[in-house]
TrEMBL record:
One of its GO terms (biological process) is zymogen activation. Residues 24-124, 129-230, 235-337 form the SRCR domain. This is CD5 molecule like. The lineage of its organism: Eukaryota, Metazoa, Chordata, Craniata, Vertebrata. InterPro entries: SRCR, SRCR-like_dom_sf. Keywords: Disulfide bond, Glycoprotein, Repeat, Signal. It comes from the Eukaryota. GO terms for cellular component: cell surface; extracellular space; plasma membrane. Disulfide bonds join 49-113, 62-123, 94-104, 199-209, 306-316. GO terms for molecular function: serine-type endopeptidase activity. PANTHER family: CD5 ANTIGEN-LIKE (PTHR48071:SF8), SRCR DOMAIN-CONTAINING PROTEIN (PTHR48071). Residues 1-18 form the signal peptide.
Length: 339
């Protein structure tokens, strides 16, 4: 019988969370463990004022959500679109030892705070999925962690949609291949945790997919699942003086290359600035943009089209990697406010 995968991973979400859903969430971030903080009160979700918000408060959020260590307290305005004006704003004060945000000191409806002061949180992503035996962390035999032990996943029922979820969860690029694994030297050993995994491909985490639990499959390690993802989508602005302005370059197959400006506009710049953790795009005349020395070597992307709300340029449409009709005089240059 198909069961939700998060039942398998209950050990990593902390005691009690299967009985009661978390009353806190992180929204508009690149993954479930980063974003603008929202808390639930009487069936309504509101934001948290950043007055007094610190890493101790974030530690509690990370703990309640079953995420890893607290890493940062960014402003909630980094995560677009911003909160609805109708949402209430609360104030929270934690010691850092609480297991839930609801156990911290709280003030209802803070009227002197505006949504420009919403709090954000960054937590590490807990390691519950990995790819091993490949030429890097984004290619290899799929393993999941349960009860402190790593085990394999049976290829039965597996699909590229499920591989997309794994690649997203690992912070890798797009899923490119999934197949039955492996030879005797590279196949897994020990427990086979999962089989008949079914994902739509839109899930943020593999534990939201359906699967069969350990003990309900007839698989052997000859049927272990192998997944290959593109390397993580990285970008940078080349400028000796300012990381938030410069010629745009993206990393593909270990090589940095430029982006053609065909169709490039403000929405695309919004995504780049957001992904780099910089401020809003700045309008700069074309003459000043031409002051940057053109790139050389690869032109990786052309005809990039974004809606403006994406968290990564990878989520925008573009031609296939390396396909373009440009030269380096058309390299994209981006100017963002410094964060």
């Amino acid at each position: 019988m198909a069961l939700f995968f998060f039942l398998i991973f209950a050990f990593c979400t902390g005691p009690g969370l299967l009985e009661s859903s978390p009353k806190v969430r992180l929204v508009r971030g690149p993954h479930r463990c980063e974003g603008r903080v929202e808390v639930e009160r009487n069936g309504e979700w509101g934001t948290v004022c950043d007055d007094g918000w610190n890493l101790k408060d974030v530690e509690v959020v990370c703990r309640e959500l079953g995420c890893g260590a607290a890493k940062g307290t960014p402003t909630g305005n980094l995560y677009k679109p911003v909160a609805d004006e109708k949402q209430k704003i609360f104030e929270v004060n934690c010691s850092g030892t609480e297991d839930k945000l609801s156990k911290c000191d709280q003030l209802e409806d803070v009227y002197e705070c505006s949504h420009s002061e919403d709090a954000g949180a960054i937590c590490e992503i807990p390691e519950t999925v990995r790819l091993v035996g490949g030429p890097g962390r984004c290619k290899g035999r799929l393993e999941v962690k349960h009860q402190g032990l790593w085990g394999t996943v049976c290829k039965a029922g597996w699909s590229l949609s499920a591989a997309k979820v794994v690649c997203r969860q690992l912070g890798c690029g797009k899923a490119t291949l999934t197949k039955r694994c492996c030879n005797k030297d590279t196949q897994g050993h020990g427990v086979i945790w999962l089989s008949s995994v079914s994902c739509s491909g839109r899930e943020e985490n593999l534990h939201y997919c359906l699967s069969r639990l350990e003990g309900n499959n007839n698989c052997t390690h000859d049927e272990d699942t192998w997944v290959e993802c593109e390397d993580p989508f990285k970008l940078r602005l080349v400028n000796e003086d300012n990381r938030c302005s410069g010629r745009l370059e993206v990393l593909h197959r270990g090589i940095w290359g430029s982006v053609c400006d065909d169709g490039w506009g403000i929405k695309e710049e919004q995504v780049v600035c957001r992904q780099l953790g910089c401020g809003k795009p700045i309008f700069v005349p074309a003459k000043e943009r031409r002051n940057f020395v053109p790139g050389n070597g690869r032109i990786w992307l052309d005809d990039v089209h974004c809606k403006g709300q994406e968290q990564s340029l990878e989520q925008c449409q573009h031609r296939s990697w390396g396909y373009h009709d440009c030269n380096h005089k058309e390299d994209v240059v981006v100017f963002c406010l410094e964060a």
